[in-house]
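Hey all, sorry for the wall of text incoming. These are the two entities for the joint prediction.
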Amino acid sequence: MTSYILRRLAQFIPVLLLASLGIWAMIYAVPGSPVGALVGENATPEQIAAITARLGLDQPLLAQYWRWLTAALQGDLGQSIQSREPVLDLIAKRIPATLQLGLAATLIGLLVGVPVAIASALKPNSLLDRILSAWSALALGVPTFWLGILLILLFAVHLHWLPSASAYIPFFTDPVRALANLALPALTLGLYISGIFSRFLRAALLGELLSDYVRTARSKGLRERDVIGRHVMRNAMLPFVTIVGLSLANFIGGTVITEAVFTYPGLGRLLIQAIGVRDYPLIQGCILFILAIYITINLLVDVLYAYIDPRIDYH
Amino acid sequence: MNPTLRRLLAHRGALLGIAYIMLLAFTAAFAHLILPTDPLAQDLANTLDPPSPEHWFGTDELGRDLMTRAIYGARTSLVTALGAVAIAGAIGVPIGLVAGFFGGWRDAILMRIVDVLLALPGILFAMALIAVLGRSQAASLVAVGITGIPAFARITRAQVLSLRQRDFVTAVEAMGGSSAYTMFTTVLPNAWSPILVQVVILSSVAILLEAALSFLGVGIPPPTPSWGDMLRTGKGFLYEAPYYAVLPGLVLTLTILSLDTLGRTLARLIEDRQSAEDDA
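and here's what came out:
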């Protein structure tokens, strides 16, 4: 198992290296000097000197990249132009907010998506299946930002039940206020995620329900609940986990957009604000960080895959 | 009539989708002839007016007619999406064709590059690219286009790999057809249908991505009318003018749902046809 994980890790390293090269090169692609991009227009000569020394701008390009990469790996992502704070600190402050939103939305996605998938897969092409499939198409097709606006209009503007802009309140500090602030963004993102779950789990279940072992299980008199729960679900998890892994990129996009709709102070919003003021060290840091998370989750999905399917040879 | 086309038209959802997209494309293309109003004409005496017989969607914070802007926004959106899909296809299809046709080291190198591109979340990639290039319609188009390359490359490669085994391709090669001749005159013409399905599906993805970028404030810069930007501005007036963000959002949502339904129906029909051919 360990060697399998290490092997998968080795396959991700080229992706991460290539991506980090691209993120590093951003500064050099921006019109003007890289120092200007990194310290901003109102920099003092001391700051310019410090950055020049840090980047080693008199060194060959490859050496400059190496310096940047080793610094980043040690947690030194540079300093924000706007706030002059270390980029890593700014990112670290936003992580709990995004994590809380992501977990709540995934929970909603599972609670809605899995029952929908099972109900429609059990009676394919029935009226219920067609209604539920249309529901999945809507959940996937309606843009997250429009759905978020509609929910704000209904629950905040019209009914005055929930706030229209969501603050981050840690769940364990004040559960009631945390839920009030989290409800709309989590629902917006969660409904989208439920669309991914229900569409692909339904397809996976349908494929399995046609198998011989299902007929055997049914003909030996197993209750339908056991046929689905013990046999079909376990096998359908495989294609499903693959798809969820592939959909991770959409999760990340959805989070960035949801945070923007509800002015929720998460990582995605930090990135958008950074792009708005051209705070390049912060942009680089956010993108590198989100990418690292994305690749880590991808790796976890792979490991989960091997765990679910003992047939996969990971020795 | 082509049997696949006939079956497509028999599908109610797909038919509605086609009708909606055609109507949208037509009004967007001839907007300057059909509509009496200018999308940039301000009327500061009538700002944030609710929908009325004069202004069906109401007016925005500068008194501009929102329906006119939504229709010109369709122009922006469709042009960006088509441009992006064209870029993605022009780069992705040849990659898939060469990788699938030759196999070996060409396949390994090309598909590894495609995998790296596929491994990056599209919106993150687009935002990074725009952070470097600056906000413009061209930057959005290129950024959205590049994120579509892997889909074209993979689908073309898969198609070419299966065609490569067919007798008629072997026959052309046996008769001395060069690689380029076989690729372009024998393989590619038979690989079109799944690629065209991909064009439809990617158009809907491209429209959504472009609108998302504009909504985030990094897409096409104002005053060019774009759906994402209208939703972004409208979100600031939810209490004063709730219809502002609702109606342009509806136009956008219907566009995406239409293209998505059309794409998935086409994909299913072509799959049916291919399995029927395989059985025959």
